[in-house]
């Protein structure tokens, strides 16, 4: 029975005898035999080579890393190495075995000498537990068996699922707060004075939205839109944005505690990645010299310049989307189809959001290649260093891909488009789009909602369907040739064959399989925190997505993909710094949304400086009465640009002037004093909000210790007892 435990399987096509590929393959397998590996060959439509490492390799491994795993070491000197460690060591040796032609397995796979190399999913007690308790849809709301995941997939994967589970659990609170905010908006603030005034303004004539053949319109047409806006844009949102800034900090602080507990229970405190890599290099080749650290300023400069160029390209794409929306708006407005011309602005925003989603999908692929290219330029020393460099680059690129268009909508839309009679135009022709009269925040809301819904539904379906379909197809390709050649008798005698074949039929995993999952969740985390003031339902969507995501990833790993090479890790690596950066951006982003995008500040300024309340002591009156009339400026029709074709009649009345959203004087269209008051108030609020939120974040970070007392005490007593044991042994030896 023991004979049939294989660590790894190599698969290759059946090459002709004496062909170059066959010679290369034989050289590689000979190198493995020299190192004492046992190799078993099974012939089918492909050649399968089972590889088992000799026991002395693992003894060396245990001796070299004795001090870091001191606790395990004391119990028994030659105990069995855990399966995850076996696979990791074997994987390392296979990847670093060099043939006489100076080729490694990686090069041979490129030259199609070998087609695949993978560790096996085996039928064991642990796989059954994982399939029953984890990799199925029925256990959606049960706790994950993190310990079993660690014993099967290694610490790195287990930490990912522990982190994802923790994040999902804390999202419940954020989602509840978000739902409460929207509920407050629909109930408490639905009868707000501002939206009431918009709905009653049936004789406020507004300036046309486009240059050719657009008529004037009445403000009360936008009644429903105003109600939606005030559902998001009210006092509750400010509190919610504050709450989310604190939530992001508390989430990370609590995760650090959770991680410390986990790392101690897994004995990872003394473990050092670099030391382990050096040990494995020496086991593989005792003459190995370490690769020294290098740093080249020239290389860093080139990488920096190229990265900046790439970011420029991504911002350029955001500009292209802006231009699309301006042109689309103009074309829809002039369209013959009634539906299009009536809802031109909403349709332009919606199609813009869908286009943005498509650019995200395409640019993700491009960013990937660019980040890899930049990573190779840097020549990182170790695998983990390479992964860190890659993470930072791809995250920055993905961030700009996902957010540049949102940043434009939040902070620039409707603020840089001039005023009637003097519009800013693209190529001197198309007017830049404006915000809706009831505020810009709804545009941001629509964009966020469309992207988050599309991202989560389409991306998740694709992420599950593609591996599932390709697995089904690989199963179908199973040739019946073998049973004819070999006859049924031989079929029965080799139990390995079926197991190896079924593993081969699964989808291949690559180095970045886990990385992809992290990236997806981290981008989602940015959506959940950065502009959450404009879209309070984001945490709820994220929560629903994550509950499904955990089990989808589990099913993919257990049933659709070959087994991942287990890796050791004591934390989630550089992702923690990325999450901390997002937390800081979230404070800035939400502060800006409330200060600049929402109408919160202009309304407050009006209430306390310009409203009827300031003149007389009206306790019964709502202080925001008259806000809408005050926020619209007057424009005289004779000042229109010469090429603007506007019908001067509206409902049978000759029109002399129309209104537009801005604070400008009626005679020379310069800014009024109120504009500067509001501007100052926005800045003051922004500075106040950022500082208060950042102080609260710092206090929260200080208040919650990173490492729980229990863990600190455990490490302390362990060090103490180790030193005491050493002391007693030295005393004993000196006495003898």
Give the SSE layout.
Elements: E1 8-12, H1 20-34, E2 38-43, E3 47-52, H2 55-64, H3 70-75, H4 83-96, H5 105-110, E4 116-118, H6 125-133, H7 146-153, H8 155-187, H9 193-200, E5 205-206, E6 217-218, H10 223-232, H11 235-265, H12 273-284, H13 297-333, H14 338-342, H15 344-378, H16 383-411, E7 418-419, E8 422-423, E9 425-426, E10 430-431, H17 441-476, H18 481-493, H19 495-505, H20 513-529, H21 538-560, H22 575-597, H23 600-610, H24 612-615, H25 627-631, E11 632-636, E12 649-650, E13 653-654, E14 657-661, H26 673-703, H27 709-735
Antiparallel strand pairs: 1-3, 1-4, 2-3, 5-6, 7-8, 9-10, 11-14, 12-13
Organism: Panurus biarmicus (Bearded tit)
Pfam family, one: Anoctamin
InterPro entries: Anoct_dimer, Anoctamin, Anoctamin_TM
Rg, please?
A: 32 Å
Structural class: alpha+beta
Unreliable runs, pLDDT <50, ≥5 residues? 69-77, 481-491
The tally of helices reads 27
Strand order of the largest sheet: 2-3-1-4
Average pLDDT over all residues? 85
| Distance between the ends | 47 Å
Main location: membrane
Protein name: Anoctamin
Membrane topology: Multi-pass membrane protein
Subcellular location: Cell membrane; Membrane
Summarize the structure.
This protein is an alpha+beta fold and 736 residues long. It is built from 27 helices and 14 strands.
Describe the structure.
It contains 27 helices and 14 strands. With 736 residues, it is α+β, with helices and mostly antiparallel strands. It has a domain at 8-120. The strands form 6 sheets. The chain has a 4-stranded antiparallel beta sheet, with helices on both faces. The relative contact order is 0.12. Residues 83-146 form the Anoctamin dimerisation domain.
């Amino acid at each position: 029975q023991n004979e049939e435990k294989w660590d790894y399987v190599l698969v290759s096509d059946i090459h002709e005898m004496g062909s170059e590929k066959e010679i290369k393959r034989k050289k590689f397998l000979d190198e493995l035999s020299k190192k004492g590996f046992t190799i078993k060959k099974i012939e089918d439509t492909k050649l399968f080579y089972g590889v088992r490492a000799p026991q002395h390799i693992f003894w060396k491994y245990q001796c070299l890393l004795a001090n870091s795993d001191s606790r395990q070491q004391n119990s028994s000197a030659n105990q069995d190495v855990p399966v995850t460690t076996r696979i990791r060591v074997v994987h390392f040796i296979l990847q670093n075995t060099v043939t006489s032609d100076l080729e490694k397995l990686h090069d041979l796979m490129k030259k199609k000498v070998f087609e695949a190399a993978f560790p096996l999913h085996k039928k064991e007690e642990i796989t059954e537990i994982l399939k029953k308790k984890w990799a199925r849809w029925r256990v959606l709301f049960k706790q994950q068996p993190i310990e079993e995941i660690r014993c099967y997939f290694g610490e790195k994967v287990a930490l990912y699922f522990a982190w994802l589970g923790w994040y999902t659990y804390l999202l419940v609170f954020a989602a509840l707060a978000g739902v409460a905010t929207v509920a407050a908006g629909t109930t408490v603030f639905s009868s707000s004075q501002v939206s009431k005034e918009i709905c009653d303004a049936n004789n406020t004539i507004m300036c046309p939205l486009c240059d050719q053949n657009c008529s004037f319109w009445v403000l009360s047409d936008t009644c429903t839109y105003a109600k939606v806006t005030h559902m998001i844009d009210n006092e509750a949102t400010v509190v919610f944005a504050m709450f989310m800034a604190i939530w992001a900090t508390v989430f990370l602080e609590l995760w650090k505690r959770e991680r410390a507990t986990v790392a101690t229970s897994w004995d990872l405190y003394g473990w050092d990645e670099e030391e382990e890599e050096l040990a494995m290099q020496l086991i593989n080749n005792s003459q190995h010299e370490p690769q020294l650290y290098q740093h080249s300023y020239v290389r860093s400069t080139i990488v920096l310049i190229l990265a900046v160029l790439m970011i420029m390209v991504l911002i350029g794409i955001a500009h292209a989307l802006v231009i699309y929306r301006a042109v689309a708006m103009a074309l829809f407005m002039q369209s013959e189809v009634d539906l299009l011309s009536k809802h031109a602005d909403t349709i332009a925003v919606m199609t813009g959001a869908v286009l943005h989603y498509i650019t995200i999908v395409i640019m993700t692929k491009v960013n990937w290649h660019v980040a890899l290219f930049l990573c190779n330029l840097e020549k990182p020393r170790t695998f983990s260093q390479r992964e860190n460099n890659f993470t930072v680059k791809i995250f920055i690129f993905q961030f700009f891909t996902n957010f540049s268009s949102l940043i434009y909508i939040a902070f620039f839309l409707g603020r840089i488009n001039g005023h009637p009679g003097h519009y800013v135009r693209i190529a001197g022709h198309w007017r830049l789009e404006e915000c809706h009269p009831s505020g810009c925040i709804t545009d941001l809301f629509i964009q966020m909602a469309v992207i988050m819904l599309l991202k989560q539904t389409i991306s998740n379906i694709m992420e599950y369907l593609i591996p599932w379909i390709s697995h089904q197809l690989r199963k179908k390709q199973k040739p019946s040739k073998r049973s004819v050649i070999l006859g049924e008798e031989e079929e029965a005698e080799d139990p390995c064959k079926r197991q190896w074949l079924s593993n081969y039929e699964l989808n291949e995993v690559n180095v970045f399989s886990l990385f992809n999952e992290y990236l997806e969740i981290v981008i989602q985390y940015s959506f959940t925190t950065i502009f959450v003031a404009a879209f309070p339902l984001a945490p709820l969507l994220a929560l629903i997505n994550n509950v499904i995501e955990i089990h989808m990833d589990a099913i993919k790993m257990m049933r659709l993909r070959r087994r991942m090479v287990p890796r050791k890790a004591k934390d989630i690596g550089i992702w923690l710094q990325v999450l901390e950066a997002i937390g800081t951006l979230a404070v800035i982003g939400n502060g800006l949304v409330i200060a600049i995008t929402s109408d919160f500040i202009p309304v407050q300024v009006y209430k306390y400086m310009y409203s009827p309340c300031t003149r007389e002591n009206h306790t019964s009156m709502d202080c925001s009465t008259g806000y809408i009339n005050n926020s619209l400026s007057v424009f005289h029709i004779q000042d229109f640009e010469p090429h603007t074709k506007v019908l001067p009649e509206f409902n049978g009345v000759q029109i002399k002037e129309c209104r537009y959203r801005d604070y400008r004087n009626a005679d020379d269209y310069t800014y009024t004093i109120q504009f500067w008051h509001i501007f100052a108030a926005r800045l003051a609020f922004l500075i106040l909000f950022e500082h208060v939120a950042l102080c609260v974040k710092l206090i929260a970070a200080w208040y919650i210790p990173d490492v729980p007392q229990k863990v600190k005490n455990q490490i302390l007593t362990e060090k103490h007892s180790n030193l005491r044991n050493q002391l007693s042994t030295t005393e004993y030896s000196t006495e003898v």
